[in-house]
């Protein structure tokens, strides 16, 4: 009988260390084989920021630039997010930023062609959930800002609709902890918008709700 590869189990649980801070988690995540996404990605992209941050920002997954550099939110969407946070009254340097999924999922028609982002499945998000649970346990943020529909589904289930709850304050149990959350759109959706200025102001408005919670 063939031995199943660890990624066939679709859970990161065996790779998450039982103790240690963010540095220990980041080191362990670099070797995660909890789902098949690690095979095509350049590297694991773990969360970054203040280990005692009052606010944690959770996006969907790393993009092309994040996959190459190994850091979250370093591409165009990340730069726009930093500007929106500052405009809303939240210092980007005081936040912890991460993604629901730690490996870049993409399609590529042929080698050396542009890698096109693909949304992770619920199974892939669930597989990566233990990493997000570990980050929450270490950082213990006062508030989670959900960036986009995929991150919302990862945290709140498949029924989540960002358009219905964006800019509101939710209280839910997440990975065994009672959390306050403010959902908004992913900054990449602002970049894709036909009316970018209006979409940007909507993002800032949602983040101002988060700023008031933290005030």
Question: Helix and strand layout, with pairings?
Answer:
Layout: H1 22-29, E1 48-49, E2 55-59, H2 64-69, H3 76-88, E3 95-99, E4 106-107, E5 116-117, H4 122-139, E6 143-147, H5 149-156, H6 162-165, E7 170-174, E8 177-184, H7 187-192, H8 196-214
Parallel strand pairs: 2-3, 2-6, 6-8
Antiparallel strand pairs: 1-3, 4-5, 7-8
Helix pairs in contact: 3-8
Which tags fit this structure?
single chain; 215 residues; alpha/beta; six-stranded mixed beta sheet; two-stranded antiparallel ribbon; 8 helices; 8 strands; 16% strand
What does this protein structure show overall?
- With 215 residues, this protein is α/β, with parallel strands linked by helices.
- The protein contains 8 helices and 8 strands, in the order αββααβββαβααββαα.
- The strands form 2 sheets. Strands 1-3-2-6-8-7 form a 6-stranded mixed beta sheet.
- Strand 4 and strand 5 (116-117) form a beta hairpin.
- Helix 3 crosses helix 8 (196-214).
- The radius of gyration is 17 Å and the shape is globular.
